[in-house]
Amino acid sequence: MVDHVQSLARGLAVIRAFSATAPELTLSEVARATDLSRAAARRFLITLTDLGYVRTEGRLFSLTPRVLELGYAYLSSLSLPEVADPHLERLAAEVHESASVAVLDGQEVVYVARVATARIMRVTINIGTRFPAYCTSMGRVLLAALPPERLDAYLEAADLRGLTASTITEPDALRAELEQVREHGWAMVDQELEEGLRSIAAPIRDRSGQAVAAVNVSTHASRTTLQRVRDDLLPPLQATAARIEADLATLSVARA
Fold first, then answer.
1. Sign of CA dihedral 171, 186, 86, 254
2. CATH class of 6-63
3. Residue by residue, what is the 3-state secondary structure of the chain?
4. What is d(CA 177, CA 254) in angstroms, rounded to the nearest whole number?
5. pLDDT, tens digit (0-9, with 9 covering 90-100), for 53-75
6. How far, CA to CA in Å, does 201 sit from each of 34, 50, 81, 121, 243?
7. What are phi and psi of 142, to 5 degrees?
8. Quick count: other Cβ atoms within 10 Å of Cβ 194?
C-alpha cells in the first residue's frame, strides 16, 4: 500500500514485543520478536529511548510508564467514557456525591468521565483535568497496580509536594500506603489534594485483571465522616466498578 508507513509499523512492533511475560528484552530478542535486523531493531530502540517510551539497563531494554499515553488515547477517545457515563450517573444519584473515572498518564491522573452533583473543590473538574497521582484516591489505586519496576521508576521521578498539611510526601510512606491499597483493593484519601476534600476509589480492570482505570466518589469532609465514606460509599463504588468492568469485557468480546 502506498500510504503504509513501514517505519511506524515497525516501531509499534518493537513496543508490542514487550509483554507481561517478557518485560525485559535484549537487542537480539527484540530483533527476533519483530523479524527485524539487529541494526534496525537497535535504531528503533534508541529512538524509543530518546522519546521516553523505552529505558535501557546494561543489555536489557524495557518499556517506561510513558507507553500508558498510547493506551490513554484509545481509552479516552472511545470505549471507557462511553461505558462509564451511565454507571457514574447511577452511582452519583445513589450516593448524592460526585463520581469520576480517571486513567494514569505518566505522573498524573487524567479525568475521562465525570458526573458532578456539587462543586466541592476550588478548581472546576472537567474531562481532561489532571491531578498528581500520589495524592489522589484514583491515582493511588492505579499506582498500587503498577509492576514493581514501574512503581520504583515513578517514586524516583515523582515530585511529592505537600499540597496540604495532610499530604504524604515521603516516598517510603507513600510506598507503604500503596501496599495497603493493594491489599485492600481500594484507596481513600483524606484532604491530601485539597483541604476539606475526601475521596475513595476502586480499580477498573480489564479481562486480564489489569487495572486500566479507576472510579471514585468525592465528598466534603464537613458533611461526611471517614466511617461513612467506608460504610456507605465504598460498597456502591465497588459495585459500580464491577458493572463497568462487565460492560468493558462485553465490548471487548464484541470487537474480537
1. positive
2. mainly alpha
3. CCCCCHHHHHHHHHHHCCCCCCCEECHHHHHHHHCCCHHHHHHHHHHHHHHCCEEEECCEEEECHHHHHHHHHHHHHCHHHHHHHHHHHHHHHHHCCEEEEEEEECCEEEEEEEECCCCCCCCCCCCCCEEEHHHCHHHHHHHHCCCHHHHHHHHHHCCCCCCCCCCCCCHHHHHHHHHHHHHHCCEEEECCCCCCEEEEEEEEECCCCCEEEEEEEEEECCCCCHHHHHHHHHHHHHHHHHHHHHHHHHHHHHHC
4. 38
5. 999 999 999 999 888 777 655 55
6. 39, 34, 17, 17, 15
7. -75, -35
8. 19
pLDDT digits (tens, 9 = 90+) for 132-147: 999 999 999 999 999 9
Indicate the domain borders of the chain.
6-63, 69-255
198 forms beta bridges with 190, 219
Task: State the cell numbers at 198.
Answer: 475526601
Q: At 62, give phi and psi (nearest 5°).
A: -150, 160
Are the CB atoms for 131 and 108 separated by under 8 Å?
yes
**What is the pTM for the complete model shown?**
0.68
**Residue 51 in grid coordinates:** 522519546
Closest to 176 in 3D by CA, of 201, 155, 204: 155
Q: Which amino acid is located at 188 in the chain?
A: M
Alpha carbons 162 and 82: distance in angstroms, whole number: 35
CATH of 69-255, one of 3.30.230.70, 1.20.1740.10, 3.30.450.40, 3.20.20.70: 3.30.450.40
